[in-house]
UniProtKB/TrEMBL annotation:
Keyword Hydrolase: no
Protein name: Glycosyltransferase family 2 protein
Superkingdom of origin organism: Bacteria
Annotated keywords: Glycosyltransferase, Transferase
Limits of the Glycosyltransferase 2-like domain: 6-180
E.C. number: 2.4.-.-
Alphabetized Pfam families for the sequence: Glycos_transf_2
GO molecular function: glycosyltransferase activity
Top-level EC class: transferase
Organism field: Spirosoma soli
InterPro entries in UniProt: Glyco_trans_2-like, Nucleotide-diphossugar_trans
Annotated family: Belongs to the glycosyltransferase 2 family.
Organism phylogeny: Bacteria, Pseudomonadati, Bacteroidota, Cytophagia, Cytophagales
């Protein structure tokens, strides 16, 4: 069994593979590199076979998104290649740096309770800024809204070392996600119905409910292009983010929590966010938000089944941020992580 498997999921990303795969191979530290191809139509598989013979190519039968694709790929690695102790899942549009692996692996080996970890994620185009997808580690507020050290909504901090510490967090980004393989398989992997977006947050939440921890490693950094498969301006991305956030909240909220009150508040706040989209003429995003809520209500029977099963398996509570990040950001004008009430930039916990 390998210590680490580096696994890149690809769908029509030949240009990203050509640009970033050489850096991954050069900094793989002897660990195997896999590319799981989700039935690409851009010649990715032939390109890999011709130009990167060291890469192990896994050909998936269809595009099941990030969640379903990685479920298939990691199960394939476990059953056909002997598996690994840890997985790392860098997006195809991630530029890794020398020494990016060892700080994270050392942190995870030192603490067997860590199920997931991430490096610092900086912007590929603006090298000193944190990037949207995870920044320096993520949290979830009491209404299910997510934010990060280094990035709160549309405010991106410059990295000047304020998050170089190793920090326990709530969720680690799927842009470059390190995971303990046994925990991934113990949990049943990602929720494939999410398809893409927030599946890693849902998984981190579920892992914590089993007693595991999630961390960010401040001594490892990678650079992320972002939006390589689905650009942030695409209404489908809006739909998936709003829908999956509701899925995640309903499935995982504590049994004694005020769940339906929170869902009602989310309906109101999501409606207000639609007004912001309307003000800039993005009416397709408004329709996407409406679709997301109807999709949530339509899936309630299955979500209820999942919620019951998770409650029966639960061993620990996952610690959410107790205040509203929406209120703090928009009403109190607190734009950075350090400005959030009661939290310092180098705090060890929320």
């Amino acid at each position: 069994m390998d210590t680490l498997a580096i696994v890149i999921l690809n769908y029509n990303g030949q240009s990203f593979l050509a640009k970033f795969l050489p850096t991954v191979l050069a900094n793989a530290d002897g660990h195997p590199v896999y590319v799981a191809d989700s039935a690409s139509t851009d010649g990715s598989v032939a390109f890999l076979q011709a130009n990167f013979p060291a890469v192990i190519v896994i050909q998936l039968p269809r595009n099941d998104g990030y969640a379903g694709g990685y479920n298939l790929a990691l199960e394939h690695i476990r059953t056909h290649y002997g598996g690994a102790t840890y997985y790392v899942l860098p997006n195809s549009d991630i530029e890794v740096t020398p020494g990016w692996l060892s700080p994270v692996l050392n942190l995870m080996k030192a603490n067997p309770k860590i199920a997931a970890c991430q490096p610092k994620i900086r912007s590929y185009s603006e090298r000193t800024l944190f990037e949207h997808a995870g920044a320096a580690g993520g949290f979830v507020d009491w209404l299910g809204y997510v934010f990060c050290r280094g990035r709160v909504f549309a405010t991106f901090e410059t990295d000047h070392g304020q998050y170089d510490n190793d920090q326990r967090i709530f969720w680690a980004t799927g842009a470059c996600l390190f995971m303990r393989a046994d925990v991934f398989h113990e949990t049943g992997g990602f929720d494939a119905f999410f398809f893409a977006h927030m599946e890693e947050i849902d998984w981190c939440w579920r892992a914590q409910r089993l007693g595991y921890e999630v961390w960010a490693c401040g001594q490892s950094v990678v650079y992320h292009v972002g939006g390589g498969t689905l650009h942030k301006s695409n209404p489908q991305k809006t739909y998936l983010n709003y829908r999956n956030s509701l899925f995640m909240l309903y499935k995982n909220w504590p049994a004694d929590g005020w769940l339906w009150g929170k869902i009602l508040l989310r309906l109101v706040l999501d409606g207000l966010s639609s007004v912001l989209f309307l003000k800039v003429g993005q009416w397709r995003d408004v329709l996407a938000i409406i679709r997301a809520h109807f999709a949530f209500y339509g899936r309630l029977p299955e979500l209820r089944r999942q919620r019951t099963a998770l409650q029966q398996q639960q061993k620990a509570e996952a610690r959410l941020y107790a205040q509203s990040i929406v209120w703090q950001y928009f009403a109190e004008n607190k734009k950075t992580f350090a400005e959030i009430s009661g939290v310092k930039a180098d705090s060890s916990a929320l």
